Amino acid sequence: MRFSTKLFAGPIAKSLWCIAANDPNFTRANLSGRGIKDDDVTKLADAFEGNTTVTHLLLNGNKITDVGASKLAEMLKKNKTLRSLGMNGNKITDVGASKLAEMLQSNKAIKKLYLHSNNITDAGARRLAETLQWSNSTLTILSLNHNNGTSADVMCKIERLVKINKESP
User: Which SMART domains does the UniProt entry name for this protein (predicted)?
Assistant: First the structure.
């Protein structure tokens, strides 16, 4: 893949370069608290094209909205290397949660998904639960604590489904 020099500008330039270069020593990308916005996520998703080394991506405490979550979800439909995605403390709503649920239908590589302290309600949590129930038996951690309006019933269902995944061979 060819990259423009614009891809490697800004507060996450070094990480973008390592991801795009498929650096075998760069397996964990911690981009938490860097003020990352949706346009940065687009660059990040482009850098991930063809990456087979990064297994953990932390994007906690940024300014990522449903647009960025959707862009990551599209990228993760193709990427089969990433095992853990942390997006705690962003601005993701039910729309972004639904896009991530859609991604989990085909991506069986992701084992851990952290989405606590966003703006996800029961609607988005139910969509994720449906995916766990019918389409994904590999996700073993799904964190949705401290979201706006997720009920105990839905959270219990998710915990039960994740537990089933953990116990499956």
Answer: LRR_RI
Taking the model in full, what pTM does it have?
A: 0.93
Domain spans, the chain: 5-167
Contact between 147 and 116 (Cβ < 8 Å): yes
Read off the pLDDT of residues 51-82 as tens digits, 9 standing for 90 and up. 999 999 999 999 999 999 999 999 999 999 99
Write out the two tokens for 11: 């507060």
Q: What whole-number distance in Å separates Cα of residue 68 and Cα of residue 57? A: 14
Which fold is adopted by the domain 5-167?
3.80.10
How many angstroms separate the Cα of 20 from the Cα of each of 23, 44, 60, 142, 163? Answer: 8, 9, 21, 27, 35
Contact status, residue 102 vs residue 76, Cβ threshold 8 Å: no
Contact 155, 144 (CB under 8 A): yes
Tokens of 144: 């949705």
Distance of CA 25 to the CA centre of its chain: 21
